Sequence to fold (732 residues):
Amino acid sequence: MATEGTSLPEAPGRPEGYGTFEGVFVPTVVTILGVVLFLREGWVIGNAGLGGGLLVVLLAFMITGTTALSLSSVTTNIRIGAGGAYSVIAKSLGIEVAGSIGVPLYLAQSLVVALYVFAFREGWQALFPTHPAFAVDFLMFAAVLAIAFVSAKFSFRVQYVVLALLVAAFVSIAAGAVGVPFDEPLRIWGEFPGAPEDGFPGIGFWGVFAVFFPAVTGIMAGANMSGELADPRRSIPRGTMAAIGVALVVYLLLAVWLARIAPPEELVRNYTVMVDLSAWPPAVLAGLLGSAFSSALAALVGAPRILQALAAHRVLPGAGPLARRSASGEPRAAMLVTTGIVVFALLLRELNAVAPLITMFFLIAYAMVNVVVLIEQRLGLVSFRPLLPIPPAVALVGAAGCTLAMFIINPIFSLVAVVVVLLVYGYLVRQRLDAPYGDVRSGLFQAVAEWGVKKAIRLGGGGGRSWKPNLLVPVEDVEELRGTFRLIHDLASPKGALSIMGIATERRPDELLADLEIAGSQFRDEEVFATWAVVETDHYTAGFVAGMGALRGAFFRPNTLFLTMPGDSDRAEGMRAIAARAPDYDLGVVLFADHPRAGIGRRRTINVWLRNPDWESAHEVAELDLALLLAYKLQQNWAGRIRLLTAVESVEEKQEATANLTRLVDLARIPAAEVYAITAPLAQALDRAPQADLNIFGLPSEIDFDWVRTTMAAAGSACLFVRGSGEESAAA
Fold:
């Protein structure tokens, strides 16, 4: 991954940052050891049995554990900015991809606050059933908001209290196990009866997995604070992996204890079985409430930081104020917006319908973190040298596991989440965002291009079927290029390319290069890929011929030389020499003669003139193939029509010529082309032919510029004079 030279500025008033334990471990571990642990792990073991339950837990932790390893690896390779997973993806795959993930991730992080509030209320009403739900929800959220609004540091201090409550809860559970016989028969695989609220309709293994998996999606709680950490490169890997390890041990121990202490029937019916079997039930209830409170607090502290990072990169329109921080380094404006979203969610009173979608957004973000590592490893860039390298299989398992989990939990919401991400990506691509640092997208496309080049070379030439116009244009004066801009664009667009070769005989090369950069960028702005370079030489012809030779070795080389009429006899001689050498470099030649008065006119009709071809092999005539292909390109871009014309010597030849022209139209697959065989010499035929905006003629191997001027005057329009290289085929 490219190491950037700039990053988002550090927040003022926070020079020291937070450490591993306070900034990463505590918020991550208290989020993972949340309400699902206290209210649903017993239900999981009751349904799946000890073996099935352990498999559920291990699968879930394998998916999030491999993702955490991928996150840890990539954060040891970059200077991660604010936004956690968003920053990781942005610095690898670009702001557009990161924004398409980051916007839904921010919304999910905000909405999950409301889910934790509702979970807190359920636990609270178990103690105080008469307390109104609405009041409990908003008072609890007000407390969380007050703590988060003061500062992240204060939030971390509160989480120490929650951590102490969790420890007390687990001590109470352990004390309840002392002296109690573990005599419950061990059931390795359960009967999967389902849930009591549904009347035990039955449930499958993956249904149990879907209920449990949200318990382990809190692995980014610490990483979301990446912009606040003193040393995120060290703190995120250590704190995240330590939290996952501790949480896994707790889940496994509790699973074994639950399986041996209570029958499956009680485990699936009684969601508060841990409370009932503990030595001091209030301690477990306090741990349950504390975990819900702390999870809501961690989400409310992390979400505004994702929003602030999105706003700093202008991912959100008109979000400039959201990018600012207070004097103490807090994203106050982003916090207020997040508060509004949470309040709206609380007023809805029921988020269960969209809860799976929230999980999908988290899983997409986690999958993309794994994809980032896979791409970086596959590219083999020198810049990707993480201090914590991991085998590719780890990231592959993480990416596949996240994707699998999405469609297991809810296929419909998975598709909805993917569509949302794609829509946001499409919007951001159109915004043409600028990142303050580099990413590896160019390396990715270069790797694909290198693979394609090697494959194409191994397969050999594709003949005429793979031909498309790649124009080579010599330029001394950029004003001439501007004069032919529209014609060159229409010849190359939409899939062709343009190579501009500046010939610096009198001008300074750097000045000419600057002019070419502006002109080339204008072609790119209109969807014609252009490259440019300058040859410094004392002799125009020799310098350009040397440039043609250099380009011949390139895989994406030009195939058609585009010339304009010379201004003096010296330049005419040089142009003849250049055109004569073009076949040596497999280049077709196009000479443009612009009519001094008529120009190209309305850009509607193209006349293609055939000079007495051998009709039996007309489709193999080099000048004819290139002329027809270029005429077809212009017809498409002008929404115009093509005429094929020839001058014949006698009336007897006219019928055969017309038939052959018609056959050629069919062979070349040119729709609605008209054919004309005119009985007259070419000069008179030009006068009798229907008027066109552009006439195309064959170009002799020895260019006669006087004949070119005479023909242009007789045609009464701008003209192209064409000689193919032999690589083109209008019949292919």
Remarks:
- Residues 255 and 467 are 65 Å apart (CA to CA).
